[in-house]
Amino acid sequence: DVEWADVMASAQPVDPVPVAATDPLYVLYTSGTTGKPKGIVRDNGGHAVALLWSMRHIYDIAPGDVFWAASDVGWVVGHSYIVYAPLLLGATTVLYEGKPVGTPDPGAFWRVASEHGVKALFTAPTAIRAIRKEDPEAKYLADYDLSGMKYLFLAGERLDPDTYHWATDNLGVPVIDHWWQTETGWAIAANPMGAEALPIKAGSPTVPMPGYDIHVLHDDGNRCEAGEEGAICIRLPLPPGTLPTLWNAEARYEASYLSEHPGYYLTGDGGRYDEDGYLFVMGRIDDVINVAGHRMSTGAIEEVLATHPAVAECAVIGVPDEIKGQAPRGLVVVKSGASTDGLAEELVRLVRDEIGAVAAFRLVDVVPALPKTRSGKILRKTLRGIAAGRDEPVPSTIEDPGVLDTLAPILRS
What DSSP element (H or E) covers 88? Predict the structure, then answer.
């Protein structure tokens, strides 16, 4: 170990080293939620162009504004929007370590935003759901002056309409859903608040951003009509800032992203366009289940469950079923103080009323917590494996491995 002050006393300044725009800036491994982690390569030039453009035109941030991405510096949101993007623009960036609740209370985010004059807060829907679970009436919000906060941006997990409405009603500012991936490094679809604010539709990240030519495709490669669900793909070439390859794995890059539909990048997510050209992302393609021959998005069932006033957050997975092939199974976490008496029956009835008997939704359990990565993604693949009786490896990025120990006997019952 060496003392910082001692080393700095003898340190000599070093000039910046010029690099090519196409030289690698960093390698960032995906969380492992989709299998063996992949080393996403980011280049220098395109990354800087995309981040600077997005700060101005998506997030409506100008030099001197205060921008807070409440993420981990080690995740892609932290790389992109805690470190590089605000500093490229000349904005102030906030670095925050801690949870949105219990540090010391569910008003932690509002305190930081108030103290530092945050103009735009960018976090994950799971953070807002955690705050809502502990403070469903938003009582802590009243303790702070958030008059300087103009936007709440959410990404990383699907933003269910119920969470969107709770945040909108209580904050009184535009709540902007946007969708992107570690691979892309910035938003694929968003509402460009700094260019032209579009009408918000709950459940939609709005429209593709410049450079992203997004098509929803059937399995045979034909394009889906408005309202039809399929695989969300981006027609090549990809825009600046997106991954040029995987680290030391060119063949895997092609096999994972470029082979399924030639000429397109496969995002791995499923969804649809509506008649107005708004994109709806329903979740990973792996989360589409086949119930007695009917293809069904578990995200659609989650959307219904989330509307119940007692539900703080939920996950739906497909589990093996001897008769139907697969059946949906729900796991729900309730809000603080909410009653669970008769809740399972109410949720089954709610799904039947909203989606229909075709969903065959009969299995739902109230659980204390859902397993997540530290970036807030629910580990649905791991849950599916446990429910199917497989000995699933625990992803290295899991926030609390103990949650799986609690859920395993429930899932296998």
Answer: helix 85-89
